[in-house]
Design goal:
Blueprint lengths: L8 H9 L2 H9 L1 H11 L4 H4 L13 E6 L3 E2 L17 E5 L8 E2 L7 H5 L7 H9 L5 E2 L2 E5 L5 H5 L5 H11 L4 E5 L2
Parallel strand pairs: 1-5, 1-6, 1-7
Antiparallel strand pairs: 2-4, 3-6
């Protein structure tokens, strides 16, 4: 337990990972999860991934969600699901967004569960709960959603790729930790 009877940051994040999002990913593609775990357990992981160590404990961090589920607000344009190689853009979602208003535009996973409960692919309510329980410092004021995009270079091209643009926005919002939630 963390101080004053509150769960530790790791425990709160564990609860988040073990939420509907984690179960959904396991149900859809256990092989993908196993592959990700084998990489994560690899001895040379720190040489493969450009880690940025946290500057403070998780219970003090500002945390944002970044999903690839194609979630968007009603006042935003949907992702271009007709583009053959996908849509490299992203949509910003406010931290106080009513989850019942969110929509989904994606063609590379069954979206019925996400439409019924956006927490399956965009666990903002679980993040709010982690904040209320003291597991994280605070929920970021903005979060991000990408749709399907097979054009990885369009996402990571420097300096204008959308991933770099998002990183600049998250830094400006003083986000300490971004949870990547795949669809």
């Amino acid at each position: 337990m963390g101080g004053k009877g509150k769960p530790s940051g790791w425990r709160a994040l564990g609860r988040l990972v073990n939420s509907g999002v984690g179960r959904f990913v396991l149900e859809r593609d256990a092989g993908l999860v196993a592959g990700m775990m084998s990489v994560a357990m690899g001895a040379d992981l720190e040489e493969q991934v450009p880690w940025t160590p946290l500057r403070r404990p998780v219970r003090e961090c500002t945390v944002a969600l970044v999903t690839t589920a194609g979630v968007y607000r009603p006042d935003q344009a949907p992702f271009d699901v007709d583009a053959v190689t996908g849509d490299p853009s992203f949509r910003m979602i406010p931290g106080d967004q009513d989850l019942g208003e969110l929509r989904v535009a994606h063609t590379h996973y069954p979206t019925d569960r996400a439409r019924r409960d956006p927490n399956v692919v965009f666990p903002l309510q679980r993040l709010r709960e982690a904040e209320a329980e003291g597991g994280i410092g605070r929920v970021a004021r903005r979060h991000a959603s990408f749709g399907f995009c097979a054009r990885t270079r369009a996402l990571i091209a420097t300096p204008g790729g959308s991933a770099h643009e998002l990183a600049r926005l998250l830094v400006a919002d003083e986000v300490d930790l971004a949870l990547l939630v795949p669809a």
